[in-house]
From TrEMBL:
This is BTB domain-containing protein. PANTHER family: BTB DOMAIN-CONTAINING PROTEIN, BTB DOMAIN-CONTAINING PROTEIN-RELATED. It holds the Pfam family BTB. It comes from Orbilia brochopaga. CDD domains: BTB_POZ_ZBTB_KLHL-like. Residues 4-67 form the BTB domain. It comes from the Eukaryota. Gene3D superfamilies: Potassium Channel Kv1.1, Chain A (3.30.710.10).
Amino acid sequence: MDSELLTVLVGAEQKRYNVHIDALCASSTYFRCLISSGLKEVKEQLVHLNSEVDDAVAFEAFIQFCYFSGYWAKESLNRHHGTLHFHAKVYVLAERLGCVELKTMALDKATDLCSDLTNVANEKLQKCLEKSLCLFGETVRIVYANTYDPHAGKLPTVAQEASGSSTPDDTQQITRNGFRLLLANFAASHLPELKKSEGFMETHLDCPEFGTDLILFLGRD
């Protein structure tokens, strides 16, 4: 709290945030590298974040994490707070800012939410499900466009190489992006509702890898 403040302008609307430099550097490799770079914007203590994944609502979650090691939904600020779409935006922003702990937290929160939405038990969850389904196509696009995963259509496993050798050096670990698999599994569970959405039906045109992952979960118990 004794460190200097850095002004960060976020998103197309350039919303202004004043955040302690030490809090940013403790959580984000992006800000650590930026602060140590000595660039003009650092000397002027004014940084612009305006890439396609920089979102004021997600950045507020990042600030919460910087100070409190967690984040929560503030529904009064944004109608998408607490939805799967919200956690997806936090996830991709955390990846861009190099905040591994926040990225993991966003995936965990999204996973818990999807589990809760499997058996909707109250009106609040029903509204959350409706919002998540309505925004699902956009959610898929933001995750698939801003994450890297070379193993689309495969489940995470340890696969034997074609040589047939059983030595440990000849095995290949297939790792997957957790949020991509979460979305594919969620879509398979709610496909009848999602098929009614024109936006969802167009998703495979923008994100063919999503369609490939979706097949993994269709017909599974």
